[in-house]
Amino acid sequence: MSTITFTPLRADGVSVSYGERRVLTDVSLTVGPGARVGLIGENGAGKSTLLRVLAGAETPDSGALTRPERTGFLWQEVRFEPGDTLAALIEHALTDVRAIERELEAAAAALGSGDAASDARYDAALAAAERAGIWSIEARRDEVLDGLGVGGIPLTRRLSEVSGGQRSRFALAALLLGRPDALLLDEPTNHLDDEAAAFLERQLREWAGPVVFASHDRAFLDAVATGLLDLDPARSGTTAFGGGYSAYLAEKEAERARWEKQYADEQQELRELTHSVDVTARSIAWSGKVRDNDKFVKSVKGNALDRQISRRIRNAEGRLEDLRTAQVRKPPARLGFAGIPSGFQSLDDGSGLLVHARQVRVPGRLQVDDFAVAPTSRILVTGANGAGKSTLLSVLAGRLEPGSGALQRRRGLRVGLLEQDVRFADPGLSPRRIYEAAVGERRAEAVPLTSLGLIAQRDADRPVGALSVGQQRRLALALILARPPHLFLLDEPTNHLSLALATELEDALGAYPGAVVVASHDRWLRSGWAGETVHLD
């Protein structure tokens, strides 16, 4: 049996810019075999960009990279045509494995040729075959598909015939089946239920090669990561942390407090030094008219005082210059959830439910006997992928007509739906233009986009197509909150949002003045849910 070795995954001084916008600056990391590094940071901080660079899908402006020959990459969105079958998706992921099988067969056949290099060739082919697990692919295929909850779906189906969550699960299954030497995963749990997420956690904890993943799943980070790399702006750029997510939160908050205190202390010292140089030193200078018999005293004492004042001024000026040059920069403002704008008019007038669905059926997608939403309801909808959570929200929002059943809704009801997959028709428009067109100029002036705390000022006028998936979802959330709905529907609301914003959004939903219906797999969110829970089979 040959010895299986894995090449570390390494980045040295990687920098990436898009136009004038610097996304990554001098990022370095080394991930050895068996290590699992989670990338965290605000939306747009460069997590997906770094993964693409590590995968070789994007070339950095500067820096050096080392990766195993077989490095697998899970994109956030499935990169196949809707007409492709599920079987084709899986087989495409096994292209490298099939090549390894052919090379092993050829190397074995060459052993009897008398070629001196044939033994080394066979050893290399055997080691590659063992890393890829070529002898257990068929058995592992059933295990992985079942573990991710899609084992019962015929592989002859086209991607357009399954849900977005199921497509993502098949893409993940295909990647795991190929067993690459290194894994790069961009939001791998976005469409996984509890059982599937637990299965993936077990797979990754047993993975022999290096793993790097970006995730907003707080429970997943705690369960899988052996270390974290924070791409949020900090004094030294990125911050590496060798521990789990819960411990990291406490350390990050303490670091932020230290940074803010040092900045405040230095600014206070700068003000005092400036005052000392510009005001205090001159105010104590020798002044006044001197009598003739005091000329000698003035000469002696005045010269000494002049030297003392000059020395104090020079010392203050020197410290002032040093501090101006070396002072820590101001901590960036926290980009958070600013809450609900004023002007919300509740429908909680005692006249009944907002929406009442009875015996609602959408063939093949949804079956609900009774679902009632009161003006201040807090309802969490759970269930496996394909159970109909997204379909239910679409029916409640009036975007999908049920095949049968009764759906009553209150007159004058305003509904807002935050969908899982956000699409903007014109990627060239800026968030500010999209916002103004959606809410009207008067409302946009009264409630500016950046006042909602979801889109940073620097991103408000960039093309929306150049923003990250998470930033686009922030914009979609801002469009809803600019005119707060009576019924707020959120489909997997924490997907693609930064960890900090997800927590703030959860807190804000608890105080929302209207009704809230959330469909979510987020274990962290569900563990703290205080309202009603409805499970769809």
Quickly give the CATH architecture of the largest domain.
3-Layer(aba) Sandwich
Distance between the termini: 47 Å
- Helical content band: 40-55%
Q: Find the structural class using helix and strand composition.
A: alpha/beta
- Tell me the Rg in angstroms: 30 Å
Structural shape = flat
* Assigned CATH superfamily of the largest domain: P-loop containing nucleotide triphosphate hydrolases
Number of strands: 17
Low-confidence stretches are none
CATH fold name of the largest domain: Rossmann fold
- Strands across the major sheet, in which order? 5-6-7-3-8-9
- Estimated share of beta-strand residues: 15-25%
Q: In CATH, what is the class of the largest domain? A: Alpha Beta
Structural overview:
- With 537 residues, the protein is an alpha/beta fold.
- It folds into 3 domains: 9-233, Rossmann fold (3-Layer(aba) Sandwich); 264-326; 355-535, 3-Layer(aba) Sandwich (Rossmann fold), CATH 3.40.50.300.
- It has 16 helices and 17 strands.
- A 6-stranded mixed beta sheet has the order 5-6-7-3-8-9, sandwiched between helices. Strands 14-15-16-12-17 form a 5-stranded parallel beta sheet, with helices on both faces.
- A hairpin with a 2-residue loop joins β1 and β2.
- α5 packs antiparallel against α6 and α9 packs antiparallel against α10 (295-326).
- The longest helix has 39 residues, at 245-283.
- The relative contact order is 0.11.
- Keywords: ATP-binding, Coiled coil, Nucleotide-binding.
- It comes from Leifsonia soli.
